[in-house]
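Incident review: delayed structure delivery

Summary: a single-chain prediction request sat in the queue longer than the usual turnaround. Root cause was a stuck worker, restarted by the on-call engineer. No data loss occurred. The affected request and its eventual output are reproduced below so the record is complete for anyone auditing the incident later.

Affected input:
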Amino acid sequence: MLAALRASFLTFICLIAIFQTTRAQQPAQVQVDFGKKVGPMNPAWAWFGYDEPNYTYMKDGKKLLSEIAALSPVPVYVRAHCLLCTGDGTPALKWGSTNAYTEDSNGKPVYNWAIVDSIFDTYVQRGMKPLAQIGFMPEALSSNPQPYQHDWKPGDPYFKIITGWAYPPKDYQKWADLVYNWVRHSVERYGQKEVESWYWEVWNEPNGYWKGTMDEFFKLYDYSADAVKRALPTARIGGLNIAGTSGKTGTQWLEAFLKHCAEGTNYVTGKKGSPLDAVLFHAKGSPKLIDGIVRMNMSPQLRDIQTGFKSVLAYPQFKNLPLIVGESDPEGCAACGMATNPSNAYRNGTMYSSYTAATFARKYAMADQYGVNFLGAVSWSFEFENQPWFYGFRDLATNGVDKPVLNVFRMFGKMNGDRVETRSDRMYPLQMVLDSSIRGEKTEIGALASKAARTAAVMLWNYHDDDRQGPAEPVELQLTGIPAANITLTEYRIDNEHSNSYEVWKKMGSPQQPTTAQIAILEKAGQLKTLGTPKKLKVTGGKAKVSLALPRQAVSLVKLDW
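Output delivered after worker restart:
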C-alpha cells in the first residue's frame, strides 16, 4: 500500500513537472490587425543630441551622422549644447565651443560664425535639421565669467561643470543682438525655406544649468524669442527643456514657464505672453546596480513624459503645439562610462536596444491616450571621439563602429504609414510600467506594428529590467488584415549573434588597439542583420501566421512586402 502511494505521488510530481514544462513552452501570443489604424507612425524616434558640438565635424562624428541620416526616411533633427560658448573649438567631455561672440577693446560685439557654420553645414549637407539650442553664455557676456571652461571628468561631482557659461548676460540687449544676428546669418547662408524648417530653443535644463533666478530665465527667453522672430517671423521657437519633469522643481519650472508664455508680462514688449511654437522637456530613467546586476527603471522616464503632456494640456491655447522630449534616455549622463558608473553597464549590449524599443512603444501609447501632438523624442546619444573602445558611454557608435542600439533605429526607419492595433498576452499594461517598470516574474514580449501602402512591419522585443541573458522563447505572430494574397517576409534581428559588434569585439579578446582587419569585421558586425533569408508567405483571407523564437533582450523586426 505504501509503495503504491509512493508511486502515485511520484507520478503526480512528474505530471506537474510535465505540465509546468509544457506551460513554460507555450508561445507568447501576439496579434496584429493591419486593418485597424491606431494613429500615424510619425518618426518621433528620428531626433538625436549630444553635449559636445565639435564632434559633429570630426571623423567619426561625420561618419555616424551620415549613417543616422541614411537610416531615416525623413529628415533627422539634431540638438547639441554649447553652440555659443567661447573657445577655440577644442572638444572635451561635456564641453564644446564656437567663439561665436567676443568683444573688442571698446566692448563692441564681434561675431564669428565659422565653427557654428561647420556644425550646421554638416547637418544640412546630410539633409538633417538643427534643433538649434540658443546657449550657452559667451564669456564676454557672462555676468560672472570666471572660471569659464570647466575641467570635469567622469567620476567628478556633476556640479563641477557649472561655471561662467551658466550665468545670465550682463547685457540682455547684447544677448538679443547676438541671437538676431545668428538667425539672420543662418537665413543668408541656408535660405529662408530651410531655416523655417528648423526649431530654435532657449538654453537647457534651467533648473540645473542656469545660475540666475526663474524670472531672469523668463527674461532671457523673451529676449531670445523676440530676436528670433524679428530676424525671421516664420521661425519656430520653443522651450524650456527642463530636467526632472515629474519632480517637484521640474514641474514647478515647466508650469511657471507655460503660465509666463500664456499670460505673463513680456520683458521685451510689455505685452501679455511670449512666443511659443513648441514645448520641450526632458525624461530620464534610473538604472541601479543590484548584486552585480544592472536593473533598469523606465518608470521615471515615462512619468516625466506623462507630466509634460498633462502640463501642456492644462493650457487650451497650447494643446495642439508640437511636444518634443528634448532628451529621452535610460539615465542622465552620456559621458559617464561604466568604469565610474557601474549601473551604466547596460549601454554596450542588447539591453539598451530592447529598452529603447519598449520605451518608444509607451511614448506612442501615452500620446494616443492624452491626444497630444507628440513630435519627437531626442535620444541623447551620439559618439565620443578618440575614446577607449566600448568604454560604456551612452553612445550609438564607438570609434566608428556601430553599437547594437543604433540598429533599433534602423528598424524604426523601416516602419512607416500608420500604427495599427497590436495585442500581446505578454506585454505589460502601460499603467503598470508607469508604476513599477517591467519587473515581473516573466519578461515582456511586446510589439509595435505599422502599415503603409505596400509594406508593413512588426517590431517585437523580449525585455526585462534585470540585465540578464536568457534562452529564446517561442512567439506566435498572428497577422490579419493583410491586403495581399502573397507576401515576402524578412526578419531583422538584434541579439547576441546578430547586429552586435560588442559580442564580436569580446570574442576578439576586447582589443583596445584592433587591427585594420579587425575593425573591418567589427564595422560589418555593427550593421543590421537578417535572420536567415527572406521567405514567400501565402495569405488566406487576409490572414497569416508566423512562428519565431526571441531570446531575452532581443529585438526583431518582421517586415512584410507585397
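Verification: Residues 136 and 456 are 43 Å apart (CA to CA).
Action items: add queue-age alerting; document worker restart procedure.
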